[in-house]
Design the sequence.
């Protein structure tokens, strides 16, 4: 394609999907916001001296993000094998790379905050509801339930991370903010893929709506509890929490899964 | 019953040539360089959208076109890979809806 294309919105839908679900598109996209960064932030970004209680709360949040990202990494890897076509397999492989990068930068951030054994710290601080969510997601992937897995991972989990990371970035120290901003940029592709793929499938086979509704009912309490606990840890005011929860509700509403 | 005057106004509106816009790079860095001018960051509720812009409901990025947008137009949000169509909402504002 030419370097300066005409109106991008004139692409045919199939042409658009082939373009955006490619490794080429992914590579040129991440190049824009990751070049020059080391472990997700600019090397010259200063480390802020955090008070002990804030540092401790940040470590708890990061430990839980690591669990979420590990779930997404293992989930996306498993989904490659059951993807309905090669184009989706290629897109998912870019998601796997994204999730691996997220995990790496978060672990690195924990170490830079003085956590010598991140694995042990994660076990100590992990939210039990998030672990239960992860278990259920893996059951769906192992059961080769494509729609259920995409719903749990790319709609529910990614929507939660998208909202929480944005809220956290707004009040975080400069290094953590840069790391989270970079992750949010990746998450845009993941949430968009999930909602659009599922939307197309629901349109073609509306009977799967009931099954997804059941999965939603199982996962909602786990998501809400995790969401609530993380946002409270980050001292996000209650009115902002409600607003953030609406982002997730808007997706399920658009998909007709309320 | 349709007001004949309203119909004439709608017809005239449809026939009016669309405004054209030159898109410059606003620093949006989440898509390949060649597509960057078609998107910009949303500045929140106080952000005023121009006649060639709509907000992506999925990922909250502003989608831009080289021409004035009208109801029925198709637009793409590359950052979240969504296909959308433009509608006029209850407040008379242009809005993007996801087309699955």
Sequence:
């Amino acid at each position: 394609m030419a370097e300066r294309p005409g109106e991008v919105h004139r692409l045919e839908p199939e042409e658009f999907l082939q373009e955006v679900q490619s490794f080429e598109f992914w590579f040129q996209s991440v190049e824009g916001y990751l070049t020059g960064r080391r472990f997700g932030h600019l090397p010259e970004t200063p480390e802020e001296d955090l008070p002990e209680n804030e540092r401790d709360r940040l470590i708890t949040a990061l430990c839980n993000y690591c669990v979420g990202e590990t779930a997404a990494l293992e989930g996306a890897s498993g989904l490659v094998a059951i993807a309905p076509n090669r184009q989706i397999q290629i897109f998912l492989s870019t998601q796997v790379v994204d999730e691996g990068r997220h995990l790496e930068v978060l672990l690195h951030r924990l170490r830079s905050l003085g956590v010598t054994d991140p694995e042990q710290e994660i076990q100590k601080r992990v939210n039990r509801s998030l672990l239960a969510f992860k278990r259920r997601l893996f059951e769906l992937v192992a059961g080769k339930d494509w729609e259920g897995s995409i719903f749990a991972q790319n709609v529910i989990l990614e929507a939660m991370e998208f909202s929480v990371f944005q809220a956290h970035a707004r009040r975080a120290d400069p290094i953590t903010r840069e790391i989270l901003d970079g992750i949010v940029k990746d998450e845009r592709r993941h949430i968009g893929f999930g909602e659009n793929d599922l939307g197309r499938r629901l349109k073609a086979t509306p009977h799967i709506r009931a099954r997804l509704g059941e999965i939603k009912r199982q996962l909602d309490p786990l998501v809400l509890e995790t969401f609530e606990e993380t946002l409270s840890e980050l001292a996000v005011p209650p009115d902002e929490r409600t607003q953030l929860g609406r982002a997730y509700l808007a997706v399920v509403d658009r998909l007709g899964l309320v | 019953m349709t007001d004949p005057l309203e119909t004439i106004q709608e017809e005239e509106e449809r026939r009016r040539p669309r405004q054209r816009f030159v898109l410059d790079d606003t620093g949006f860095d989440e898509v390949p360089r060649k597509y960057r001018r078609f998107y910009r960051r949303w500045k929140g509720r106080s952000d005023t959208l121009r006649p060639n812009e709509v907000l992506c409901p999925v990922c909250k990025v502003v989608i831009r076109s080289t021409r004035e947008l009208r109801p029925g137009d198709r637009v793409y949000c590359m950052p979240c890979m969504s296909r959308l169509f433009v509608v006029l909402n209850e407040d008379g504002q242009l809005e993007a809806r996801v087309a699955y």
Remarks:
- DSSP finds one helix and six strands in chain B.
- Helices of chain B lie at 4-15.
